């Protein structure tokens, strides 16, 4: 595994700590590396809280290392004021010379502006490291902004002969078609999404 891919993989791993709490913001992960050692990590806080880059920078014990370090992040740093200040401004403020980005942010308020701001300040930007994996990780965010709808998972269970439940039953007890392992997986999926829609047809 190449060195950039190693650290972006770690970014994706820690980003998942924000699952279910960051929406409508993306669940971003960031690590800061100095001499091939991770000196800081962060993921996006619950909605309205600090972004991944802010938390990663805050976690660095010796801030004097930042001007010689590389910041890795799954998604392009923001460049606009929302509930928090722009992450790109903080990166520039601390003089971080190199930023490695998994994928560009398609949000209309960012969409390359964060990258342009970093480059204008003299920061080296490497874009598209593990891009497919980062796009997959941010699929909920991209679906919401690019397709103007939620990311949808369809779960369907039926018997081999095409039924989802018996026509009649004497006891009012659940009739399980799936096994305990698949039910556990479905509960995990439900916990990862913002809403559940149930139906009989």
TrEMBL record:
The EC number(s) this enzyme carries: 1.1.1.193, 3.5.4.26
InterPro entries referenced in this protein's UniProt entry, alphabetically: APOBEC/CMP_deaminase_Zn-bd, CMP_dCMP_dom, Cytidine_deaminase-like, DHFR-like_dom_sf, Eubact_RibD, RibDG_C
Pathway: Cofactor biosynthesis; riboflavin biosynthesis; 5-amino-6-(D-ribitylamino)uracil from GTP: step 2/4; Cofactor biosynthesis; riboflavin biosynthesis; 5-amino-6-(D-ribitylamino)uracil from GTP: step 3/4
GO MF: 5-amino-6-(5-phosphoribosylamino)uracil reductase activity; diaminohydroxyphosphoribosylaminopyrimidine deaminase activity; zinc ion binding
A single GO BP: riboflavin biosynthetic process
A Pfam family that the UniProt record links to this protein: RibD_C
Leader sequence segment: none
Keyword annotations from UniProtKB, A to Z: Metal-binding, Multifunctional enzyme, Riboflavin biosynthesis, Zinc
CMP/dCMP-type deaminase domain boundaries: 2-125
Function: Converts 2,5-diamino-6-(ribosylamino)-4(3h)-pyrimidinone 5'-phosphate into 5-amino-6-(ribosylamino)-2,4(1h,3h)-pyrimidinedione 5'-phosphate.
Family of the protein in this entry: In the N-terminal section; belongs to the cytidine and deoxycytidylate deaminase family. In the C-terminal section; belongs to the HTP reductase family.
PANTHER family (alphabetical): CYTOSINE DEAMINASE FAMILY MEMBER, RIBOFLAVIN BIOSYNTHESIS PROTEIN PYRD, CHLOROPLASTIC
Stated name of the protein: Riboflavin biosynthesis protein RibD
Organism listed in the record: Xanthomarina gelatinilytica
Name of encoding gene: ribD
């Amino acid at each position: 595994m190449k060195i950039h891919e190693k650290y972006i993989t770690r970014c994706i791993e820690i980003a998942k700590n924000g699952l279910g709490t960051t929406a409508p913001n993306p669940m971003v992960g960031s690590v800061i590396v100095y001499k091939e050692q991770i000196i800081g990590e962060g993921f996006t806080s619950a909605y309205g809280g600090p972004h991944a880059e802010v938390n990663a920078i805050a976690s660095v014990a010796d801030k004097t290392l930042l001007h010689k370090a590389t910041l890795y992040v799954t998604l392009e740093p923001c460049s606009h004021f929302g509930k928090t200040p722009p992450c790109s401004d903080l990166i520039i403020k601390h003089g971080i010379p190199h930023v490695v980005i998994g994928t560009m942010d398609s949000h209309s308020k960012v969409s390359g502006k964060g990258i342009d701001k970093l480059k204008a300040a003299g920061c080296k930007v490497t874009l598209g490291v593990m891009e497919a994996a980062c796009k997959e990780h941010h699929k909920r965010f991209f679906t919401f902004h690019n397709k103007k709808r939620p990311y949808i998972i369809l779960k369907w269970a039926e018997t081999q002969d095409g039924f989802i439940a018996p026509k009649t039953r004497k006891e009012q007890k659940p009739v399980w078609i799936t096994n305990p392992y698949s039910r556990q997986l479905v509960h995990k999926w439900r916990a990862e999404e913002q809403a559940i829609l149930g139906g009989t047809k």
